[in-house]
Write a structure and sequence with these properties.
- With 229 residues, this protein is of the alpha+beta class.
- The chain is built from 2 helices and 11 strands, in the order αββββββαβββββ.
- The strands form 2 sheets. Strands 3, 4, 5, 7, 8, 9 and 11 form a 7-stranded antiparallel beta sheet that branches. Strands 6-2-1-10 form a 4-stranded antiparallel beta sheet, with no helix packed on it.
- The longest helix is centred in the N-terminal third of the chain and has 39 residues, at 28-66.
- This is NDR1/HIN1-like protein 10.
- Keywords: Membrane, Transmembrane, Transmembrane helix.
- Its main location: membrane.
- InterPro entries: NDR1-like.
């Protein structure tokens, strides 16, 4: 009689190997959409870089051709006939003459408005209009033009002891350190093209002799600082 016994198995038997689960495949439509978005992003990025390069080259060419410069400004003359302080009140009479120079070879400058503010030891005491729409003007290339301002009147101003000592010292030597700040509104013109408004600030540190003082000396022409930012 034939022996039908199954052969003994060595070790545990776990059955046939289980095939790995199939990974879900991306939908063809989603893949195409993603590829299209990447292409668009790459196109716009290259376009942006090209525009930046073109604008940069245009600015460089403009600067090389036009060589734009800000105007130059100085106080050419000053006359201080009154500068008295008592009872917390300053009485003053000051006339200033300025010269504005346009150093550009191709740019004209429109001076639309200029406002002057005078102060002593950081104490403001007077403001006046130097240029308004009534006397605004166009300054042509390589040209210098005069301006003037008159500060006169009285102003209540409380000086502390340090400022009062400085005032008495200036009075004894016959000259006062007066700070002037001018607010500009200007435009530039190149050919038929006119820019928008620019609003630079001009600062002048002045040492002005008192005309009635025996110790007074002549006023020295003073260059001012022009700040476009």
């Amino acid at each position: 009689m034939a022996d039908n016994k199954q052969p003994q198995l060595n070790g545990a038997y776990y059955g046939p190997a289980i095939p790995p689960a199939e990974q879900p495949r991306a939908h063809p439509r989603y893949s195409r959409r993603r590829s299209c978005c990447c292409c668009l992003f790459g196109f716009f990025w290259k376009l942006l870089l090209a525009l930046i390069v073109i604008v940069g080259i245009a600015i460089l060419v403009f600067w090389l051709v036009v060589r734009p410069q800000g105007f130059k400004y100085h106080v050419s003359d000053a006359k201080l006939t009154q500068f008295e302080y008592d009872n917390n009140t300053l009485r003053y009479d000051l006339v200033l003459n300025f010269t504005a120079r346009n150093p550009n070879k191709k740019l004209n400058i429109y001076y639309d408005r200029v406002e002057g503010r005078a102060s002593y030891e950081d104490n403001w005491f007077s403001s006046t209009d130097v240029i308004t729409h009534l006397n605004s003007f166009r300054q042509y290339t390589k040209r210098s033009d005069p301006m003037s301002a008159h500060f006169a009147g009285q102003h209540v101003m409380v000086l502390d002891q340090q400022d009062l000592d400085k005032f008495n010292s200036d009075k004894a030597r016959g000259a006062f350190d007066i700070d002037l700040k001018l607010k500009f509104r200007i435009r530039f013109r190149l050919g038929d093209f006119i820019t928008g408004d620019y609003k630079p600030t001009v600062k002048c540190d002045l040492n002005i002799p008192l005309a009635t003082s025996n110790n007074a000396t002549g006023f020295q022409s003073t260059q001012c600082d022009v700040d476009f930012f």
